[in-house]
Amino acid sequence: MLRNNLWKLILSLLILSWALVTMMPLKDRPFDQYVTGEASAKTADFSKVMAQAAERVKSKQAPSVYVALKQIGKEQRLDLSQFFPDIKLESSLKNIEKRNDILLTYLLKQSKSPLQLGLDLKGGVAFTLESPAKAGSTTDDYQRRQKLNKAIEIIGNRINSMGVTEPVIRAVGTSRIEVQLAGLNPRDNPDVVDAVKKPAQLAFRLVMEGTGPMAEPPASVPPGYEVLAEEDDNRQSGGQAAISYYLVKRIPELTGSAVKNAIATVDQFGGYQVHLNFTSEGSKKFAEITTASVGRLLGIVLDGKLYNAPRINEPITGGAAQITGHYTAREAELLANVLNNPLDIELQVKEQYEVGPTLAKDAVSSGVRASILGTALVCAFMIVYYRVGGIVSIVTLAANLTLILGVMASIGATLTLPGVAGIVLTIGMAVDANILIFERMREEIRMGKSLVAAHDAGYDKAFITILDAHVTQLAICAIMIALGTGPIKGFGVTLAIGVFSTLFSVLVTGHVILNFLIEGGVLKKFPMMHLLSKVDIDWIKIGKPAFITSWAIVVVGLVVLFVRSDKIFGIDFTGGDQVALSYAHPVDISQVRATAARAGITDISPSYQSDLTGGSTALKVELPYGESAKLVQALQHDFPDAKFESIGVNAIGPTIGREIAGNAGLSVGLSLCAILLYIAFRFEFGFGMGAVIATVHDVLMTVGMFVVFGGQFNAPMVAAILAIIGYSVNDTVVVFDRIREELKLNPTGDLRTIVNLAITRVFSRSIMTSFTTFLAAAALFAAGGGVLRDLALTFLIGVVTGTFSSIGIAAQVFFWWHKGDRKHVEAHHDIAPKYEWAGSSRASE
To answer: Do 376 and 480 reside in the same domain of the chain?
Structure first.
């Protein structure tokens, strides 16, 4: 027994150990303490360097130890890598500043916990970029807003490509952009800020004929040319790059608009460069330039800086070029990133500030408590109902949770409170796989099989159903990740990880545990409670009135949605105001929220923000348009000692713009298409139509009822609704799989009998699964607040309507599609009878 399952045991232990190690350390370590502990050579000298760094921070010459060490390395030409011989840097990299930058960036990253918390839980940093109005410019406000919106999109692409998850990017007024990043500090990551605001104006400019690199700038410059300097790391002087000067044409031969894409690559000597691919028109133009200029130097200039000036030895007709400059890997990646997303407006950093958590400590605590309560309720139910099987399912849930967090840590995902809720709800849905197996085992035991045979048959028969349900859910996650941004994408990533972790923990880890207990003789019986075991309902008979009633409720919800259409969208969709308030002493965020609620302002996002340049701290509150004066008055009334005073109000744009909202709608449409295609392929078209109509019903019902209950749409809600699609399909696939199986096992039964029998046999499983997910969502709804409560409400509605639709909509549509005729089904799908006596040998042992 152990020999047959040894590989599963070893694989489970290895993967779970990897997940646990990946999450370590669970908390960030202070950078000064970490680097002191990591220094393993010349420790006395390094202690002196650290003392200098601490003194700089204390005297405010540097904002952090990280920056202070950079400053000391640059000023003293001190190679810090000598103190860390265990960290291997490229031996060919001689530039001390770059070596120190790579080393300190690595050490900073290593000091952080792999699993970072989001803005709502931990806070973060932010900076405001401004597009200054140029004197004499004829650009009107509309054009400026259009360029600003385009810049927001480009900045989002740049930040996403850096691996920073769930950023907040939005317009402030008509000329500023605010960027909020969780877990990043611009004091320690200045390259992120630089890369975000860099215009990336690329130009190919010819060097003056007959001239080349010069050690000193020329005394005179001919008309039409200018002097540009190139730094050469291969030629060093005192640890600094040598500088060569060139006479370069002011008017470019070709601009960055001719570049199709840029990719960071490694050259033949192991160095990093940026490879450029031209558009078809750019390739033609570049070939013409190089053909007419053989023998001359062609300068590659980015934002006014000369990166290199290679000689044109022959015409270049391949439609590609390289930018070399002795880059580090990070520098090459950042350069390629900005070239792929060039800005057409200049942006200047106006403010850099630290952002406090948008959720108060009590809100975070209540969210964590709600998550723990939801998980505990699911575990308690499984133990009470399935006894030993419930204990096994808890072990698999623990493995599932470990894998989810381990994978999130390994990919650098940011954990937000909605993400925590998503994990809890994923756990609630993950129990479904265990319930499927246990219910199958119950059926096999009723047929008189031994516990060993029932266990094998239960896994065999549940396997394909579990796989089908999770593949459809994975397809939806893929669409959310591909088209979504921010919380939508983050939610999709969390759910996708949950799909794989559930499959592994249940089909591998859980299976080997039960194998050991059953085949090892530890378990002689497999006791389970028996509820809803004798259901006798003509599901087809009640299908039509149930279908009509359900869609009538959907219509009511849509009418309410239409009537309240001007009030159902939160700031994430509509934008609003941001009011900044000075104060004598801070007031807890939860009290600010409570005051706003009493004043009738429900959609707010307050946070304390400290200016990193040495300015004061302010309370900034995002709220709907025109509500700022009401909020200020309410705060002044409730907290007179705090002496709140408004110091400015700015209009902020939506964090979910038209494009993102459009992508969310497109995600729903593509999800429905994916469901139709997959189920039509795995089953047949009638099944696919039933699944799509049931899913549309669930989305409309959830949205309508959410609005009826007073909900307001924000970014996490979009992700939650998309997740409901996955849940709905999961339940529907289980029903369809059973109908298909009954068609094979009962070759003489009519379609009505088959559908009724299939629904009856999965009814108990559907209720049990829905109940576990409902328990998790109910705990979040009862103990959570704010966005957690909205997420939980969405899932409570979605669970109920998803369970109903798999029986009352999907199965009914399948039956009506085939006109209640079994022959119509068989004409469109090959369903051969499968007799139990012809099954596997293990099932008959």
So the answer is: yes
